[in-house]
Design a protein that fits this description.
Elements: H1 2-21, H2 27-50
């Protein structure tokens, strides 16, 4: 599960770089692509945070 979340995190970062730099989309498409990749990034980061190893102090 955590491997999949890490994979999604890395893929969303790479996709965001592609959308913002190389895609050649117009302004609306670029904004929509960045919103979509940002949502995946936030979702995977939240999942990783929720499944982290907890230490009892």
């Amino acid at each position: 599960m955590r491997f999949l979340l890490w994979l999604l995190l890395a893929a969303s970062v790479l996709a965001n770089v592609y959308v913002s730099t190389f895609s050649g989309w117009g302004d609306g498409g670029r904004i929509a692509g960045q919103l979509a990749t940002g949502a995946v990034l936030l979702g995977s980061a939240t999942g990783l945070w929720a499944t982290r190893a907890r230490r009892d102090a």
